[in-house]
Each structure stands twice: as C-alpha cells, then as structure tokens.
Specification:
This protein is an all-alpha fold and about 400 residues long. The chain has 19 helices and 2 strands. It comes from Flavobacterium lacus.
Amino acid sequence: MDYSLYFFSIGSFLFIGFALHLLFTKNGNTYLNRLLAVILLFRGLKMLYYIFVATNQKYFVSFFFNSFDPLYFAYPACIYLYIRGFIYNENRFKKSDWFHFIPVLFAIINIISWYFLDASTRDAIILDVIAKKTLYIDENYGFFSNAITFFLRNLLIILYLIFSWKLFLKSEFIKNRKENIISYNWVLFLLIIMSFTNFNFFITSIVNIASGGKSDALLFYNYIIILLCAIILVVIIFVFYNPKITYRYVFVSKEPFLQEQVFVESTELLIPDNLEISDAVDKKKRISINDFDIENYKSKILFYMTEEKPYLRSDFTLNDLAQHIGLPLHQCSHFVNCEFGENFRDWINGYRITFFIEEYPKKSAKNTILSVALDCGFNNKVTFYNSFKKMKGVTPTEYFNS
C-alpha cells in the first residue's frame, strides 16, 4: 500500500468525522458550525476520492466524478462565508449569499451531458481519470474540458481566499488579537492552510493545461501528493496540540474549562428570578466565558427575542432560553442578570410590556386591556398590572390617557 494512502485515509476519517459532528451538534453558533462542517466534508471527501483513484476503484471514482465534483464549486463560497461569519459574529444565512453559489448551478449544467454518453464512453473517461490521476482527461463531454473546469474551480477558490484574507486583515481581529488570541489563531491557521493547499492545486491546474496530459505531468502529481501528506500531518499535529481551539471550534464542547481565562461570576445552584444580582452571587464558582463568546451569546439571544418573539408564549421559561442558546441553566440565569441588568422574569416581562404598548393602540377599539395583555404573554391580570407599573410607574390606563 502506498504510504500516501495512510495519510489520506487518516485525513479523510478525521475531516469527515469532525464534519458529521459539527452538522449535528447544537452547541455554539450552529450557522458557523454548518459552514465549517461543509468545508471539512468537502476536503474529507476529496481525499477519499484520491484514495479511490489510487486504488483503481472504478465504481466509486465514477460516482464521485459525476456527482461530487459539481458540488465542489460550493467549497470556495463556504470558506468565505465562514470567515466572514466568524469575524462579524453572524448566525444566519442571508438571502444575498445565494449569489455565491451560482457557479454550482453552472457546474451542474456542465455535467448533465455526462448522463447522455453511452456506457463505453463513460467507462473510457473513468479509466482515463484513473490512469492520469485526475490531472488531465482527454475526453470532452461538457461545455468545458475537465482541465479547464479544474482550473476555473481552483481560480474561484483563490479569488474567495483573497476576499477572505482582505476581510481578516481589515477586521478588529488584528488590533485585538491579544484579547482574542485563540480566535485569532484559529482564523489565521485556517486561512494559511487553505491558502497554501489551494494555491498548489491552482498551480497543478495550470500544469494540466500546459502539459496537455503528457506523462511528465504525472511526476508533478507525486509532488502534490507529498505536499498534501505534509499538510495533513500539520493539521493533525495542530488539532492535537491546540486543545483549546479544537474543543471550541471543532468539537464545540459545552465544557468551559478550555476557554480563555476571562471570568464572570456564577452560582453553584439555580439563581431564583426574584433575587437581586448582589444576593445571587453569595455562593460562587468561576465559569469562564471569553469576550467573544459573551458577544456571541448576547447577539444570539437578542436575535431570538426580536425575530421569534418567544416571550409571547405565557409558558416561556428560562430553561427554554438556555436550551436555545446552548448554555447550562444556572449559567444562563446569571448571564441574563449580568448582561441585561435584570432577573429573567423582569427581563421577559419588559419585552411583553413593550410589545403591549405597540399593540394596544391598534386593537383598543375591539379588545380590552387585559385581552391584549394576555396575547402579549402575560398569564394573569395581577402580573401584568404589577409589571406595567414597575416598568412605567403608572397603570396602563393612566399611561394611555396621559
């Protein structure tokens, strides 16, 4: 067995394993987790594809060649969206982001003609793929030759990496790298590894076209294989010797012990909603949440409250919020206390009062004050009137008559 296959097997196993974990975990920023999962999955499947080519697995090579290759055009967009989302703490896909996946559509259209070829022609192409190690294919079956498609795909990756580097170098990460050293090192490592790897693929695509499929090009293939093995080895070493980064962004662990040492106070037991912050921290333990994660959780909570309005449900609890953002119950309670300056009950009722003030003038002609209040998430009259007077200093009737 070729030594390179050992590295490719280990690399594909790790990348695909991490990708599947990120796809299904509910911890951390799920949007960024999914993007990173797609990036790792593409890279893992690409290594698996090279293993099948090297071991003459005709059936699997055929499947990957016509099914996986067009989707690989989504890889550069995912890199850019992940870096952008990481830097600007994004947590959802924007409609305008679909623009980045237009090349995938063209790649799918380009491959359609494959299915209209006769079986003998398709077999000949796959055998050519195996013989030439995918560097150059003589047969043309789409709008572009395989060599041109390979070149365009790698050119697209290089362009998106340039955009990603530009975002990174202009971001606050550079200025504040000492305060966010783990986040800074993670983004820098990703960009360096992806840039180095894909630049070499880009050089390979140029050699493909220049050589015209001559046997000399296969010597260049050996160089690429050695280089890829070295990169896989670097990635493996980095993963196992940087546990803080691995647990935070790859394993996405709930455990806080690997976080950067910026601490907030929390209680050992669940903090009751009716306690003031000063009373709630008598029994303390240190739970580490770094500045980046604080902003991440805070933006996630604010987005959840603004877009989904869970406070309109009278049965909405602290436990519901904690499960949604992926924090332990007691930590979520203290997080709300510290970041929003109120206990959970007053904080939620504040949202309900604000929504009531917006809605009541629209519905006052046909609805009573109490009926609108109940629609805003309050479950009884006493709670609503007490909350309203606590927040506004007057009763609802006095407020609207003033």
